[in-house]
Amino acid sequence: MAWPVLGLLVFVTVIGFENILYPFQNQGLSVVFSWVFLLLAYIVPYALISAQIGTTFTHDGGGLATWVRHTSGDTLGYWTSWMYWSSTLPYLIDVSNSVIVAFSWLILGDNSLDRHMSNTWFGILTFVVILIFIILENLFTRSLEVMSLIGGAAMFLMGVLFVFMAAAGVAKGFPIATQPFNLAAFKPHFSTHYFSTTGLLIFATSGAELGATYIGQLRNPKKEFPKAMWMLALMTGFLVIFGSLALSVFFNANHLPADLKMNGSFYAFKMLGEQWGVGKLFMYMFAGTQLVFMLAQLAVLIDASSRVLSADTAIQFMPKWLLQKNKQGRPIHSYIFTASLCLFLLLMSSTLPNINSVFNWLLNLNGIVSPYKTCWVFFAFVSLRLQQDKFQSSYVFIKNQKLALFVGAWCFLFTFVCATMGFMPQEAAWGTPAFMHQLLMNIVSVLVLFGLGFVMPVLARLELKHQHHSLN
User: Fold this and answer.
1) Quick check: 141 pLDDT over 70?
2) What is the mean pLDDT of residues 117-130?
3) Burial class of residue 298, CB neighbours in 10 A (0-12, 13-18, 19+)
4) Where are the transmembrane segments (predicted)?
5) Which listed site, 222, 242, 288, 472, has its alpha carbon 20 to 30 Å from 99?
């Protein structure tokens, strides 16, 4: 595999066009400042930190849990594996939600989904989509791995198309929706809300470590993997910064639609088509691209989320029944467990008033659990640099050890604080019943998803004790 191919492959699993909209709704035009700051102080270091650890462990599959296991032992390796798996579940539901929304735009051609469907049925259909992919997982994974690359590349091209056509529209004299459009409009208003929404920016750009799983397929991993990570960081920076500027051309950043996170991508391409006199053409092109992209993501997520438990975890931490495989080699109990936890989250979300609030809450939950998982990347890097005499790294990010440790610690602390601030609900006013309801849902969800990680080793020990009693 050539390194530019790897860069593109990782890029399409890290960020899509819709990832630009979530922070834009939360922070308005000031999100451009946030993106520029993050690109320099977080996204580039994150990608290059992943490059150093990935080139250090080129023969071990390169998974995040493997990195932590090598640098900090089996117990923390298990915890990394568990948190990585459990943090994918809200995203799994979020992707399934997006599949239904994309279908609705293809069929209805507008945002009237909530008039045709209750949030209960929205939850049921989301669960049905997940079940179908679990049952037919083997078929989907084989056929959609290629589609994930095609759909992802098409998604990036749609994003580039949007940016350049928005710029061309401004050059032609089309009006800019956000006014005033001056330097003052980009100034961030630092507040509790601002920092509580930054976790979604981290969620939107996390996943650079995924590239390590393909490191063995490069011709010269030690030289080419860092290049792929640089490509990833620069492509991400281009899309989030210029994509946000392009959004401000079509949306008034001071008065954004309440359903921007769910329907904003479709609104954007619909308005682009109307501006250039082609009606809904761009919207239907995007809806089709989004559908293929999300279906492919779903196939990969189902397989990866369930296999992490059985393939990348020290056996002494998990009960054997959860790791059992059927005749086809599928970890069937892991699939059932995955579906059960998804159902739990969907049942909780059904207590919210409408489809838009369900979509937003599940998305915001990703802004909590995903950054907590990403903390392990920086933990592994700090551990690696503290033991740099023990490990040989062909690529070294910052040769000065003290500076490297400072950057790693900064990234860890920043990620952890943003994840923790993310518990605060973003669509409800402070102290209202809706705020307290969503805050409680956030706390309970994280406690269940991560807390079950404490239960598994206990079940494994009880199972082992029972086997000893049976033998005696």
Assistant:
1) no
2) 89
3) buried
4) 32-49, 89-108, 120-140, 152-174, 194-216, 228-251, 281-302, 332-352, 358-382, 403-424, 439-460
5) 242
